[in-house]
Each structure stands twice: as structure tokens, then as C-alpha cells.
């Protein structure tokens, strides 16, 4: 629709066009900044797996039946859009499942406790170093795709289909179910750069796990505990460097949260506030209504209060001298 000022409404943020070696892809229609929303989409098909399905990891025969029922209720134009999506099935799946079931398997996303198909979002290709991310908004009943790295007009938009803290070999194994050999800029690097990237991703995975039990605000009680907490604060800054070197924007908020907690534990309030606030800003972009956004908001306020108290204490001490 063109509004009274001659502008397209809603504004066009992307085009679907050919992507070399990847079929169709989604491309930026103009320069996009971190946090810009590319797409918001309500799933025309959404299924609720039974408890049995969730535990036994997706028995496709049952899913296909649920999907078919929803599909039959859609208007022909939506059915056509869905049937035009790409699909990839194993030899067994091609034998035992119909095309709709395989389309759903190739393109659907987990959506809270359900699984949804988003035909427009399904055109976005994968990268192991993506420039976009997404979340499911229960409130809006939509999946929202937003830019996580500055993207220039005409550049392709990529999300990740898989967790990224793994070696390339491991990632490729996960991607095999989609039927393609990944040639993203992380996978297509020359051998030594790829080895360095693998090492960073494995280090990050290990470090995120190791930090998890130490993310508490209780100050250490012993001398040894205090020494360890100081070491952790230093290590949290190294972790931030590694995640930035690897440009894994989907993991920045997690690293900021670790740096915030680690500095709060040693009562170094200024960096604690800075990292908590950075984490909050990213979490807010990711999903303003999520529990983890609220957590980062509360931590930031709490650390600011502690920092103010500390500054007040210091200025009183100076006045007494
Ligand atoms: C969800 S669809 C994405 C849109 C698809 N390119 C299309 O034309 O509709 C997933 C399929 O896109 C292709 N694809 C996605 N990311 C790719 C990548 N990094 N390299 C090669 N092919 C990719 C694969 O064929 C994959 O099965």
C-alpha cells in the first residue's frame, strides 16, 4: 500500500531473490541497523506436539497428520505458498512421507512448546556467522526476525538453523538434515582460519558451561574464593573478546551477562553496570517481554544502586579527611 506521502506501507525491508548455490534467499532492501525488524510472521500452520511426541523426538507420521489437517483448512493461495517451499528428505523420508510433511520438516521452527511453519521466514538461508536472529513472541503470535549485525542494502540476510558453538565438522553433521554443504563465510575460510575458528567455538562452549554454576551474586567468603572471583572477572573479559573475534552476535548477551555477574561478585560496580546494561540492550532487541530481558533490567538497576552507594561512601570518606 502507498500512503498519502507516496511511501510504501508497511516499509519494504527485504526482497526475495536468487542466492548463488542456495536457491532463493532474503536480501536487505536498504541499509539495516542492529535491532531493525526484517519480518514479523504469524504461522499459517502451527501444531502442538503431544507429550509423547516431545519425549520421543518428533515421530513424523503423527506430525504429518497434524500438519495435513491444518493445511486443508487454509485458503488456496496460502496452500500454494507452502507447497512452493524447498524441501529435503532422506531416502527413507521420501519413501514414507508425503511432500507436505517433508516441507514442514525442512522449514518449520520450534515455537514455544509448538512447531510452526512460517513461509516467508522459511526463505532465509543459514550461516554459521549470521547477521540476523529471531524470537517467538507469544504476545503477538508472531516470529520476529531482526538484524543482529549492520547489514548493507543488497546483502543477504542469514539466520542460524543450529547451535553454533561447535566445530565445522560437527555443525555440518547437524546441517546434513537440510541437505546442503554449508559454504558460509565461517565454513569457507582457509584451513588455518577454520581451525582457529573451531578452537574459539569449542573454548566458548566450555567456558559458558564452566561459568554457569558461578553466576551468583553472593560474595565469596574465603581468601581463596576471593582470588578465584578476581580470576573469573578477568576470564570473563577474555570470553567477551573471543566471542567478538568470532562475531557470534547471538552469544554476545550471554557473554555480557557473565561479565556483569563476575564483576558484581568482586564488587567492581562500574564494569558490572556497563556489562549488565549492554546485555540488557541486546536482550531488549531480542525480545522486550522475555524473562531474561527483565532479569538484565533488574541487574542493571541493582548494580547502579550499588555503584552510587560506593561513590557516596568514597566522597564522604574524602570529606572527613
Ligand atoms: C529453509 S530453506 C531456505 C530457503 C531456500 N534457499 C529456498 O530457496 O526456499 C532451507 C534450504 O535452503 C538451502 N540453504 C540454506 N542455507 C544454505 C547455505 N548456507 N548453503 C547452501 N544452501 C543453503 C538448502 O537447500 C536448505 O535445505
Describe this structure in words.
- It is a single chain.
- This protein is α+β, with helices and mostly antiparallel strands.
- It is built from eleven helices and ten strands.
- The protein has helices spanning 51-55, 60-72, 76-83, 91-96, 99-107, 168-175, 191-211, 223-245, 252-265, 269-286, 291-320, and strands at residues 14-19, 23-28, 37-41, 45-47, 109-111, 114-117, 125-126, 132-137, 142-147, 156-159.
- A four-stranded mixed β-sheet has the order 1-2-10-7, with no helix packed on it.
- It is globular.
- Bound molecules: S-adenosylmethionine.
- The site of S-adenosylmethionine has 21 residues, from strand 2, helix 5 and strand 7.
- S-adenosylmethionine binds next to strand 2, helix 5 and strand 7.
Termini distance? 70 Å
List the ions, cofactors and other small molecules found in this model: S-adenosylmethionine
Which oligomeric state applies? Answer: single chain
Please state the CA-atom Rg, rounded to the nearest Å.
23 Å
Residue share in helix: 40-55%
Overall 3D shape: globular
Main sheet summary: 4 strands, mixed
Number of strands: 10
Unreliable runs, pLDDT <50, ≥5 residues?
none
- Category by helix and strand content: alpha+beta
| Count of helical stretches | 11
Domain SET: 10-162
Pfam family, one: SET
Protein name: SET domain-containing protein
Amino acid at each position: 500500500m502507498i500512503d498519502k506521502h507516496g511511501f510504501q506501507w508497511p516499509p519494504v525491508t527485504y526482497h526475495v531473490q536468487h542466492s548463488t548455490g542456495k536457491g532463493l534467499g532474503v536480501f536487505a532492501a536498504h541499509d539495516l541497523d542492529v535491532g531493525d525488524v526484517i519480518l514479523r510472521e504469524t504461522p499459517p500452520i502451527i501444531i502442538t506436539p503431544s507429550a509423547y511426541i516431545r519425549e520421543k523426538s518428533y515421530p513424523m507420521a503423527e506430525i504429518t497428520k497434524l500438519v495435513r489437517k491444518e493445511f486443508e483448512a487454509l485458503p488456496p493461495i496460502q496452500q500454494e505458498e507452502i507447497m512452493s517451499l524447498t524441501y529435503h528428505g532422506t531416502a527413507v523420508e521420501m519413501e514414507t512421507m508425503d511432500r507436505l510433511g517433508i516441507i514442514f520438516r525442512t522449514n518449520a521452527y520450534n515455537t514455544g512448546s509448538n512447531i510452526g511453519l512460517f513461509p516467508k521466514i522459511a526463505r532465509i538461508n543459514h550461516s554459521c556467522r549470521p547477521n540476523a536472529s529471531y524470537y517467538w513472541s507469544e504476545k503477538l503470535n508472531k516470529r520476529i526476525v531482526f538484524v543482529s549485525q549492520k547489514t548493507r542494502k543488497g546483502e543477504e540476510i542469514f539466520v542460524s538453523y543450529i547451535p553454533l558453538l561447535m566445530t565445522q565438522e560437527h555443525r555440518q553433521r547437524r546441517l546434513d538434515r537440510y541437505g546442503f554443504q554449508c559454504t558460509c563465510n565461517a565454513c569457507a575460510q582457509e584451513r588455518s582460519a577454520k581451525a582457529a575458528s573451531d578452537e574459539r567455538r569449542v573454548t566458548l562452549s566450555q567456558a559458558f558451561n564452566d561459568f554457569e554454576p558461578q553466576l551468583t551474586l553472593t560474595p565469596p567468603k574465603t581468601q581463596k574464593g576471593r582470588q578465584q572471583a578476581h580470576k573469573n572477572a578477568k576470564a570473563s573479559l577474555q570470553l567477551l573478546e573471543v566471542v567478538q573475534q568470532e562475531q557470534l552476535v547471538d552469544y554476545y548477551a550471554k557473554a555480557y551477562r557473565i561479565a556483569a555477574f563476575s564483576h558484581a561478585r568482586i564488587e567492581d560496580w562500574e564494569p558490572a553496570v556497563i556489562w549488565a546494561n549492554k546485555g540488557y540492550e541486546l536482550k531488549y532487541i531480542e525480545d522486550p517481554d522475555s524473562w531474561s530481558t527483565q532479569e538484565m533490567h533488574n541487574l542493571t538497576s541493582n548494580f547502579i544502586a550499588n555503584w552510587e552507594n560506593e561513590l557516596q561512601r568514597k566522597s564522604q570518606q574524602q570529606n572527613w579527611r
